[in-house]
Automatic annotation (TrEMBL):
NCBIfam families: gatA. This is Glutamyl-tRNA(Gln) amidotransferase subunit A. PROSITE patterns: AMIDASES. Belongs to the amidase family. GatA subfamily. Allows the formation of correctly charged Gln-tRNA(Gln) through the transamidation of misacylated Glu-tRNA(Gln) in organisms which lack glutaminyl-tRNA synthetase. The reaction takes place in the presence of glutamine and ATP through an activated gamma-phospho-Glu-tRNA(Gln). The active site is at K52, S127, S151. It catalyses: L-glutamyl-tRNA(Gln) + L-glutamine + ATP + H2O = L-glutaminyl-tRNA(Gln) + L-glutamate + ADP + phosphate + H(+). The gene is gatA. Keywords: ATP-binding, Ligase, Nucleotide-binding, Protein biosynthesis. Heterotrimer of A, B and C subunits. It comes from the Bacteria. Residues 1-442 form the Amidase domain. It is an enzyme of class 6 (ligase). InterPro entries: Amidase, Amidase_CS, Amidase_dom, AS_sf, GatA.
Amino acid sequence: RSYLDRIECINPALNAYITIVPEKSLAQAAAADARIAAGQATPLTGIPLAQKDIFCAKGWLTTCGSKMLGNFVSPYDATVIERLNAAGVVTLGKTNMDEFAMGASNETSYYGVTRNPWDTDRSPGGSSGGSAAAVAALLAAAATGTDTGGSIRQPAALCNLSGIKPTYGTVSRYGMIAYASSLDQGGPIAHTAEDCAMLLNAMAGFDERDSTSLDRPAEDYTRDLDKPLAGLKIGLPKEFYGEGCDAEVMARVEAAVAEYQKLGMTTVEVSLPNLKLAVPTYYVIASAEASTNLSRYDGVRYGYRAPKYADLNDMYAKSRSQGFGIEVKRRILIGTYVLSHGYYDAYYLQAQRVRRLIAADFAEAFKHCDVIMGPTYPTPAFRLGEKIGNPVQMYLSDIYTVAVNLAGLPGMSIPCGFSGQTSPLPVGLQLIGDYFSEARLLNIAHRYQ
Ligand code: GLN
């Protein structure tokens, strides 16, 4: 109830939540109380969470930030929601996001922008910006997010939070509305690495309803939190430390690396020679997959349907024209183009080849180090309106995060200080590990915190 009161008071200034149903939250809270009284609690029982509106939750409006799903009340739970519910969490509401998770600023949402609690003229990052803003403003203890090309790590960085995108296949995508299926991964956004580890324990695990889910033994992600770091090697990719990053952001990242050296870690320069191709490769592949995934929104079975149309084709055309926003349409056009006959080999197939090269670059780097460190985002939180008119500029800012998704690796962002004198803005340090090294990333993050 105290969180709900705070939400009522503060959410109008931030627009972090787009759906709040207090009765539902209070019913879950009462059930959690009963469970605790019965001595059947898990570590997450009664913990109030914000859920990104990309996760289908039974009986909840689930919009994915789009007008297209503005009337969609999900008849089922996503696996992530089902698992968190089984652990006894309390859902406080559904959070705002870039439409269909396409964006990096939370400005493409049909439901209005979300504001960064550290400076309300600025973006919280995206696409899980509503989740990050809610946690940063203490409107939830923690939140769920999804990361296709940086959407957990970037908002965590810009809002002074910790967020982890696990190895592809670790968290089930069942009921998580698809953007780019070969890149999408769910994960937690929280204040600390310890909180992330506890949430990941509940969220991760094999799910036969997701054909790309990995069938591996369950892990306790909290198991290594306190391990000493001495002797571990930090890889510093030279491509991360060149031009293109704000000087104050770079200074905070370098100071964090120096702190890690005091904890006994050593550094080694590594190289990701194909990093310069990561953004174009990502936008070809992500848009291609988006264009096919979004073909299901046709106005027939569920979602938005145009009120007036002449025939079936006109109904499809009008429903999609009216239901999708400008960024989503841009991705559908790019994706349809790169998949079309005559361009498929030149763009889509070529991008798939470069994707292999990027994964191979990481594999080579991890022969020389245990973790890669660098910035999460090239600048601190930027002003709302500053980048939205220039999509290429917005896309280029994804340079430090998208390669991780292309390779399917785990990546995390943790707070590493503030830039700016008059108005302090958070800076994020990115930790990238080899496949299935989540426990180690969380350990490295935890020791710094
Ligand atoms: N900014 C990237 C995009 O717009 C990543 C978004 C995401 O991770 N969902 O595609």
